[in-house]
Amino acid sequence: MFLDFASLPITSRLWIYQADRFLLPDEEKKAQAALQSFLGEWTAHQQALQASGQIAQQRFLLIAVNEDFQSVSGCAIDASVHFLQALGQELSLNWFERQKVIFESTPGQVAALGLAEIPKAIAEGSLRPETQVFNILLSSIGDWQKNWPQPAQDSWLARYFQTMTQTH
Question: What residue spans define the domains of the chain?
């Protein structure tokens, strides 16, 4: 059953999928409608799941499930992956992008940076410890509420800043 994102408990499990490009406004509406339809029918072992989802920053698709109500099964997770693959095909994009970091280049402006470009961006100062990044590794709504976005130094990118400090 589809619920409003804000109505799920902060302990709800969260998956964040990153598209390989920014969605256009009509694609975002189409993706949100498809997501709501899928989650409205999503089940685990023939039991309805309390789930919600949304598109964020025109680049991310979030799916959350209240596992206090019903645990998510492997088959249910597989169904969500198949849904995302089909939606990606329909929109000509890949929801499983893991080779880019999405960050706020200036307040309100979101940019993408390839993983191989991180050391250079840090050295040039375009990616700083306080730069707000969108961490796709967050795993609960509560974590997402507190850490979306978060300073790069507080994310998985921290190791890059430590490496740069040690080499200078």
Answer: 5-91, 100-167
